[in-house]
Amino acid sequence: MKTLCITLVLTALTGGAVQAHVTITVDGDQRCITSDGVPDHDTGTWRPGATVEPQDHNFCMDATPELTDTITDRVRISGITVTGIPLRPGTAEYYDPTDERGWSRDPSSGWNVEGMGGLIMDAQNAHVDGDGMYHYHGIPSAVTGALDGTLFGYAADGFEIHYVGADVQSSWQLKPGARESGPGGAHDGTYVQDYEFVAGSGTLDECNGAMVDGQYVYFATDTYPFFPRCFKGTVSEDFIGGRGGRPRRDGDDLPAE
Predict the structure, then answer these.
(1) Are strands 151-155 and 134-136 parallel, antiparallel or unpaired?
(2) Which residues pair with 217 in a beta bridge?
(3) Which of 110, 175, 203, 250 has its CA 20 to 30 A from that of 187?
């Protein structure tokens, strides 16, 4: 695991202030972020009728995270920003030639639509799901541009997420050549399967993290995977459930993107 020679500044927002609709508390070994999920920047437009609806977010994670011997993936929400907005880079859509949109919730093709490559986003690389929950799929410049430091958010396992721009590079790369199945065509980033992890091609590991000054941290990057999509600590159930404080039950459907 590489050690990066960069400086991370922990002050999160301009002037060190936190927005009125966001509360961050630490109680013992738990850090909790509550918010109404409404960002302080312009949003939209997306599909007709799609609007941001206030939420009741309450995400708690480990305040003193430690690396484990396992890697956890398939986590519904990757983390939450210091401004109280969820990070949800993945989607539930798959290539489906029988659907007029070209994709559906049927995973049989094996080609998972990449949010930043195949779905409609606003200027902050975000949109809402079927419940009006606003969430980021890529870097929101309105948030990163207002940071007085590098702390961008917290991951599902409690490790910090920092944004330092081009000072770090993802090690996920587009595959060369054309797709051998499914939609065909070149690997252009429309689907998650267009990418592969190439160790050493960037400065970050497969989970978009690295050791900095003896501490493991994740990074938000301008290129895929944008946010961590796998986790090296113990993931909180709040993020697996996908709504914060309301774990997903067996049989629950995923809200439409």
Answers:
(1) unpaired
(2) 210
(3) 203
